[in-house]
Amino acid sequence: MSKPIILGSRASKLALWQTNLVKKKLDDSNIKCEIRTVKSSGDIDLKTPIYSMGITGVFTKELDQALLNKEIDVNLSTKRETIKQIIFYIRLVLFKVK
């Protein structure tokens, strides 16, 4: 039995919607995967203004770190997500699997 691909995502409604879209496409292709949510600094610290936390990585740093630590196989975070970017991720995952 092959190990499922771990899709990393923030727990926001938009991020989970997009990640579930990718998961469905993979499931439809008989590729086993599961979703693992990762809380970002921006999700945890609700008091500090985002501009005070730094310009980059407020919502992605922890996902990037989880990928580097091999806790997830795919980081499904994007900047201003679009369907084209989601399709890119699906192709990237399928390429990795094949």
How would you summarize what this structure contains?
With 98 residues, this protein is of the alpha/beta class. It contains 5 helices and 3 strands.
Mean pLDDT: 75
Assembly status: single chain
The low-confidence parts are none
Give the count of structural domains. 1
Briefly note the CATH topology name: D-Maltodextrin-Binding Protein, domain 2
Question: Describe it for me?
Answer:
This protein has 5 helices and 3 strands. With 98 residues, the protein is an alpha/beta fold. The protein has one domain (5-92): D-Maltodextrin-Binding Protein, domain 2, CATH 3.40.190.10. Strands 2-1-3 form a 3-stranded parallel sheet, with helices on both faces. β1, α1 and β2 form a beta-alpha-beta unit. The chain is elongated, with a radius of gyration of 14 Å. The model has no long low-confidence stretch (mean pLDDT 75).
Summarize this structure as a short list of keywords or feature phrases.
single chain; 98 residues; alpha/beta; D-Maltodextrin-Binding Protein, domain 2; three-stranded parallel sheet; 5 helices
Question: How are the SSEs ordered, and which strands pair?
Answer:
Blueprint: E1 5-9, H1 13-28, E2 33-37, H2 41-44, H3 50-53, H4 61-68, E3 74-75, H5 83-97
Helix pairs in contact: 1-5
